[in-house]
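re: ur question from earlier - yeah i can do the single chain one, its not a big deal. heres the input i used so u can compare w yours
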Amino acid sequence: MEKPLTGRKVLMITLAFFGVIILVNLFMAYSAISTFPGLEVENSYVASQTFDKDRAAQVGLGWRVTVAVENNELILSFTDDEGQPVQVASLEAILGRPTERKDDLVPAFAFQNGAYHAPVNLDFGNWELRFKAQDENGTLFRQTRELYVRK
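and the output i got, formated as tokens:
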């Protein structure tokens, strides 16, 4: 014998249905908040005030940048307008995943053979290198370069 569909059963089915939807939404919201790194700059208005001047100075350097990962080594090279290697006055870099900061690492670059080399052990997937290099005259060069590591 089949049991009749009562108001109590319909209420339980409806509550279970919406309960699952609410739980999934809460989980997705928590995951988004806990893994997203946050803001690029503290105050976008303040950062915008010198953007054009900073960009013009960076473009004026005429540097071209290439980034590669070969044999567990991160290679970052700067070249000038004539294709000659550039040795920067200072270099700060962070290598990490684009979507979370837990895998971030600071590569220990050493200048050799016209490029900066750092030993790394990267898992496969998308990575990004965020770096700041300074020229001898104090001009700051900032960029973010994406990498895809295949294994």
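Residues 1-35 form one domain. not sure if urs matches, ping me
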